[in-house]
Amino acid sequence: MRVFYIFILLTLLTFLGCNKVDVNSDNLKANTKTDNKITDKVKKYSGKALESTKYNIAKKEIANKHFVMFEVGSDSCKSCKEMALMLQELKEDYPKFKVFFIDVGKERIAAKELKIQMIPTQIFYDKNGKEIFRHVGKYKTKESLVAKLKTLGFSL
């Protein structure tokens, strides 16, 4: 029975962005350094465009006749932090790009209303406020996200 619980735990860790679970202390130190680098980069950007937006405020932006993207995640999620970096770069490259970060760790009601099953999740809305696409997980590159935005009709 313990093996089953360990298997479930490892599976969950894999889906949450922990690609490797290694009990070797040297590897744990290396992973901690990597996590600290990501955390430091996110702190650098956190005061700018991708700070957490209250769900009620972001929800009002959906029907304002422009394309909107919600990045739904948590500030304690490694993959979410990596997406935050990528989205910050996009905001700098394309100032008209409307993206809001919804922290479901702090806003549980938002997770329920948006029907979030895993984080990070990106939700794309058209100019009429209709959800047109949903992506679960993080995009591997900024270029792949830009390509998807263009196919959905986002004007960048």
What descriptors fit this protein?
single chain, 156 residues, alpha+beta, Glutaredoxin, four-stranded mixed beta sheet, 6 helices, 49% helix, globular
The CATH superfamily is: Glutaredoxin
Provide the number of structural domains.
1
Number of helices: 6
Examine the coordinates and then state which fold CATH places here, giving the name of the CATH topology: Glutaredoxin
Computed over alpha carbons, the radius of gyration is 17 Å
Strand residue percentage: 5-15%
- Judged by helices, strands and strand pairing, the structural class is alpha+beta
Q: What string gives the helices and strands in order?
A: HHHEHEHEEH
CATH architecture: 3-Layer(aba) Sandwich
Q: Any idea of the CATH class?
A: Alpha Beta
The termini sit apart by 52 Å
Helix content: 40-55%
Anisotropy-based shape = globular
What would a concise description of this structure say?
This protein has helices spanning 2-15, 25-46, 55-61, 78-93, 108-113, 142-152; strands at residues 68-73, 99-103, 121-125, 131-136. The chain has a single domain (1-156), classed as Glutaredoxin. The chain has 156 residues and is α+β, with helices and mostly antiparallel strands.
Written description of the protein model:
The longest helix has 22 residues, at 25-46. This protein has a 4-stranded mixed β-sheet with strand order 2-1-3-4, sandwiched between helices. The model is unreliable at 16-35 and 38-49 (pLDDT under 50). The chain has one domain: 3-Layer(aba) Sandwich (Glutaredoxin). It has helices at 2-15, 25-46, 55-61, 78-93, 108-113, 142-152; strands at 68-73, 99-103, 121-125, 131-136. The protein contains 6 helices and 4 strands.
